[in-house]
Amino acid sequence: MLPFKVRPLALLAAIALGLAAQWAGAEAAPLKKAYVAGGCFWCVEADFEKVEGVTEAVSGFTGGDVENPTYNQVTKGGTGHYEAVEISFDPSVVSRSQLLSMFLRSIDPTDAGGQFCDRGDSYRTAIFVSNQEERSLAEQKVEAAENKLGKEIVTPVLNKEAFYPADSYHQDYYKGRKLVLTRFGPKSQASAYKAYRAACGRDDRVRDLWGEAAPFVGN
């Protein structure tokens, strides 16, 4: 048995730890999800995983009528799917409103035929929503971005449908170490990603459109 003087201290410590755990649980906000399509999903994933409050960004496909599509099926066309990203975020740190504003300023929302060097339906842009509240917010953000840019924005706000994660090869591609063969020779996935992004002109076009309002250019 513990000495008399030690037991109250141990009891107080246990109570303090229990209260701390309860407070932590009470303060932790449930994660939310946002779904966007911004051309190459590697780039969208890489951008948003840098945002404080985003816990994960997953590359995948949505908006089409083919279940569990492959990357080749989607990029070939005919599935109706977009390359999209599922963004999980802590709303106590970053809001959906902030994420949508950043998204619209990280793409070329005036281009209806794809994004940058990637052309075709699977590379179109879109915001996907689950309810009327999300739709109203997304439409407000599109209108605000259109006023800021002074040009028509063609990025639609669409009802969210099933989201299918891409295979593991495409997840976190921007920081992968696996060697891949590129037109510049063998490179790690991370190096290949950087070369692709630069050659595709993504950051140059976003900088031209948005200037200092572009949140990810140069990051």
Content of β-strand: 15-25%
Uncertain segments: 1-6
**Main sheet strand line-up:** 7-6-1-3-2-8
Strand/helix succession = HEHEHEHEEEHEEEEHH
Main beta-sheet annotation: 6 strands, mixed
CATH superfamily of the domain at 32-171: Peptide methionine sulphoxide reductase MsrA
Shape: globular
Work out the helicity level: 25-40%
Please state the CA-atom Rg, rounded to the nearest Å: 22 Å
Structural class: alpha+beta
**Number of H/I helices:** 7
CATH topology of the domain at 32-171: Peptide Methionine Sulfoxide Reductase, Chain A
Report on the structure:
This protein has 219 residues and is an alpha+beta fold. It has a domain at 32-171: 2-Layer Sandwich (Peptide Methionine Sulfoxide Reductase, Chain A), CATH 3.30.1060.10. Helices cover 38% and strands 21% of the residues. It has seven helices and ten strands. It has helices at 6-27, 41-48, 71-76, 96-104, 132-149, 189-200, 202-210; strands at 32-38, 54-62, 82-89, 114-115, 118-119, 125-129, 157-159, 164-165, 179-182, 185-188. The strands form three sheets. It has a six-stranded mixed β-sheet. Strands 4-5 form a two-stranded antiparallel ribbon. A hairpin with a 2-residue loop joins strand 4 (114-115) and strand 5 (118-119). Helix 4 packs parallel to helix 5. The protein is globular and about 45 Å long. The model is unreliable at 1-6 (pLDDT under 50).
